[in-house]
Amino acid sequence: MHPYLPHLLADIIAAHQRKDSNPEQTSTSLDEHFREIDRYISGDSEQTLRYYCGLDPADFPPVGEFSEEEIKQLCHAFEEMLDSWNVSVDWPENLPWDKRYGMTVALLNREFTPMNFGMVVFDFCTGYAPECELGEYCKCLEYWKEEN
Which terminus of the chain is more exposed, N or C, with fewer CB under 10 A? Predict the structure, then answer.
């Protein structure tokens, strides 16, 4: 096991969004819900994900330093942390774990507006397969080839 893995996993756990345990304090009015939607749509208050969760991409060693099993562990822990922030990632099923790890760490530099309702979904597909970051794993590639 990589000696840094337990520390990195602990940092990811510490980056979870803390929810108040009192349900009365976490409930919001319909007006607050619409303000949140307006803020999301307008991009007001957007910072990077790293700003909110406190993780720094520089703290994540290069992919070559981990085994595939360790990479899976880190990616799953990271996705649990994202879930605490109401964030989901739409990954292609056949995306290799090493590529997924790098793209997961890169999410920390993406602009992000925290939401209390619903989910924010990150994907990497631009809809234009030839320039898509997912490359050969792009879900649109097959459809793009059919049309061109």
Answer: C
pLDDT greater than 80 at residue 22: no
Distance CA(25)–CA(130), nearest Å, equals: 47
Quick: pLDDT tens for 107-133.
Answer: 999 988 887 777 888 888 878 878 888
Number of domains in the chain: 1
Instruction: Report the predicted TM-score, pTM, of the whole model to 2 decimal places.
Output: 0.81
130 is a domain residue: yes
Q: What gap in Å lies between CA 49 and CA 12, rounded to an integer? A: 13
126 and 135 Cβ atoms separated by less than 8 Å: no
CA distance 38 to 31: 10
DSSP character at residue 99: H
* pLDDT tens digits, one per residue of 46-57: 789 999 999 999
Beta-bridged to residue 121, according to DSSP, are 88
Handedness of CA 137, 132, 139, 116 (dihedral sign): positive
In a domain, 21, yes or no: no
The tokens for 127 are 């809809």
